[in-house]
């Protein structure tokens, strides 16, 4: 087992982004519910009752990040966002115009947006764009 987990700062950032999308009322009320819903998500449940916007956003963010950086972020010990930022800081030549940090820090917002769209598709909202 790996011990990948977002640090408090990045988790808060993601949760705040999800709340800004107006999904706060959908958050799981306790870790048990979140765990059950995460499993449902893996099983591609299309039941809106089983939707956890923050967990969805987290998986979306990790999948996205893994694709961009070509490494499985799920396998990283600790917070994958902090890890990427540290790695980047060590390896980047810090040329002006490097947008990596900007890219990484935009993930919570993008993931929350994806979460809202996913929820809209689950409830069949025709206005979903
Ligand atoms: Zn972090
Ligand atoms: Zn850079």
Description:
- The chain is an all-alpha fold and 129 residues long.
- The protein has one domain.
- It has helices at 8-20, 31-42, 53-69, 80-91, 100-105, 107-123.
- The longest helix is centred in the middle third of the chain and has 17 residues, at 53-69.
- The chain is globular and about 45 Å long.
- The N and C termini lie far apart (38 Å).
- It binds zinc ion (2 copies).
- One zinc ion binds at residues 88, 92, 94, 98, 100.
Total helical elements: 6
Inertia-based shape = globular
Q: Span from first to last CA?
A: 38 Å
**Number of DSSP strand runs:** 0
Mean pLDDT comes to: 90
Number of domains: 1
Q: Main β-sheet: number of strands, strand sense, barrel status?
A: none
Helix/strand/pairing category: mainly alpha
Reconstruct the topology from this structure:
Layout: H1 8-20, H2 31-42, H3 53-69, H4 80-91, H5 100-105, H6 107-123
Helix pairs in contact: 1-3, 1-6, 3-6
The structure holds zinc ion (2 copies).
Residues 88, 92, 94, 98, 100 line the site of one zinc ion.
Defining key terms:
mainly alpha; binds zinc ion; globular; 129 residues
């Amino acid at each position: 087992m790996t011990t990948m987990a977002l640090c408090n700062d990045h988790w808060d950032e993601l949760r705040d982004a999800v709340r800004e999308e107006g999904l706060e009322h959908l958050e799981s009320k306790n870790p048990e519910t979140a765990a059950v819903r995460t499993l449902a998500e893996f099983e591609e449940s299309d039941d809106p009752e089983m939707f956890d916007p923050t967990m969805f956003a987290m998986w979306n963010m990790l999948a996205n990040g893994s694709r961009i950086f070509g490494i499985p972020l799920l396998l990283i010990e600790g917070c994958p966002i902090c890890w990427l930022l540290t790695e980047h800081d060590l390896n980047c030549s810090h040329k002006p115009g490097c947008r990596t940090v900007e890219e990484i820090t935009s993930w919570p917002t993008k993931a929350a947006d994806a979460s809202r769209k996913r929820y809209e598709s689950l409830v069949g909202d025709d206005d979903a764009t």
